[in-house]
Amino acid sequence: MLKNALPRINTPLPGPKAKEIIDRRKEAMPDAIKCGYPCVISRGEGAMLEDVDGNIFLDWIGGVGVLNIGYSHPELIAAVKEQSEKYFHAMMNIVTHEGYIKLAEKMNEIVPVKGTKKKTMFANSGAEADENAVKIAKSYTKRPNIIVFSGAFHGRTLLTASMTSKKAYANGIGPFPDGVYRAEFPYLYRSPKGYTEEEAIEYYIDKLHKVFEEASPVEYVAAIVVEPVQGEGGFVPAPIEWVKAVRTICDENGILLIADEVQTGFGRSGRMFVSNYWEEAGCAPDIITTAKSIAGGVPLSAVTAREEIFDGVKAGIIGGTYGGNPLACASALKVIEVMERENLCERSLEIAKICKERFNAWKDQYQEVGDVRGIGCMMGVEFVTDKVSKTPNAKLVSDVVQEAARHGLLVESAGVYSNVIRFLCPLVVTDEQLECGLQILEEAIRTCRLK
What keyword terms does UniProt attach to this protein (predicted)? Predict the structure, then answer.
């Protein structure tokens, strides 16, 4: 079975069939929607995919965090098929369908936002969820501004592109919406030289206070939006002591704390959400946005908040035609059931232990491996030219990504400087596949660092 297979490359990449399709892609699609991987999928199972030429790849990208329960889970297929035989669509503003209600009830049960009575709405993508969360926060607080962070990625709509830090994602599409202000994220590996972790956290909190002084007075701030682990920013986790301090600032000033768990959610951190760790530390967010692995690949996203926040939103501000589509809700309910039954949060920690040990060994062995970080098995490995200067080494990462693909392992870069390899492997990967992937990646590092 494909789900138990190991990587196997039979042809030069891309193979002849894949090359033909990739050539057609160039003619039919915008060049701006880029793909640098030399394969065209024909089928996928678990953590593995087979391309149209019969080459088999181990996927450590997982649709950029979408496939936490893997490709083609048979129960997911059955759930979507069963729903499709009843009806594809029912818009919740017109006809109530129970799948939306069931999923909202389940999300209200498992999502760790501040408050006892919770409510959930659904949209179609992570960007839509983030944009709705901002609208909800503004409507509830009656304030116009939000604060986001360096390194942030929140989407590609006009609002979320303005929230996103890396302007390569928004080059030439301004002017951007007003009322979005940026503070410095606590990127501890690149904090001021000589600072202890405690001193660095205090430094970054001071930077946040500067925004109130220099950009938006605190009384005009509706929300602070944080990724618990920055995704595109390089898999940089928010230190819990910093989160506690931000929570205190929010509580003292009537600001809502929004956790963007679009990429971090659904088991990857070792808990269903990174905000579970926040909750245990007494700093749960007010609003959580989720997407990616929520429905195993069927487009769906969610915004969850306590009842009083949603009840403070004016009618007509939120909603949409496809939000909470019946097929997506059926898929999401099954995803959560599978995750809970198969203990995928625990499996995430098992995978993390294996990978962290190996990654840290590389850090000791290779001058170019500067930092290893993450929460659970949402892990990043940062590459530098040397450990003293910490100069970002984007070329090495680019070479490693291509070399690994040639041997059947798909990995992806990230980071402000494009010098981080991120680990987003499906949580159903086998130990044998994991070991094979680690061997391929290390061999790619050895090969490319000598170029």
Answer: Aminotransferase, Pyridoxal phosphate, Transferase
User: Which residue is it, tokens 């499996």?
Assistant: 347
What's 2-59+344-449's CATH class? Answer: alpha beta
Task: Return the closest-CA partner of residue 69 out of 450, 447, 438, 425.
Answer: 425
What percent of the residues of the chain are helix, what percent strand, and what percent coil, each to the nearest 5? Answer: 45, 20, 40
CATH architecture of 78-341: 3-Layer(aba) Sandwich (3.40)
User: How many other C-beta atoms are found inside a 10 Å radius of the C-beta of residue 68?
Assistant: 27
Q: Quick one: CA torsion of 206, 212, 214, 217, rounded to 10 degrees?
A: -170
pTM for this structure?
0.96
The β-bridge partners of 423 are 379
Residues of the chain with CATH 3.40.640.10: 78-341
C-alpha span between 298 and 143 (Å, rounded): 34
Q: Which is nearest to 215 in space by CA: 181, 262, 167?
A: 181
pLDDT at 293: 97
Q: What amino acid occupies position 99?
A: G
CATH 3.90.1150.10 maps onto the chain at 2-59+344-449
DSSP notation for 365-428: H-TTEEEEEEETTEEEEEEBS-TTT--B-HHHHHHHHHHHHHTTEE-EEESTTS-EEEE---TT
For 5-9, 162-166, 241-245, which range has the lowest pLDDT when averaged over its residues?
162-166
Q: What b-and-e string marks burial along 367-404, b requiring 16 or more CB atoms within 10 Å of the CB? A: ebbbbbbbbbbbbbbbbbbeeeebebbeebbbbbbbbb
Query: Distance (Å, rounded) from C-alpha 176 to C-alpha 162?
Result: 6
> How distant, in Å, are the alpha carbons of 285, 381, 391 from that of 235?
20, 8, 18
Q: What are 256-296's pLDDT values in tens digits?
A: 999 999 999 999 999 999 999 999 999 999 999 999 999 99
Residue 442's CB is within 10 A of a number of other CB atoms, namely 18
pLDDT at 172: 80
**Between helices 344-365 and 326-341, what is the axis angle to 10°?**
70
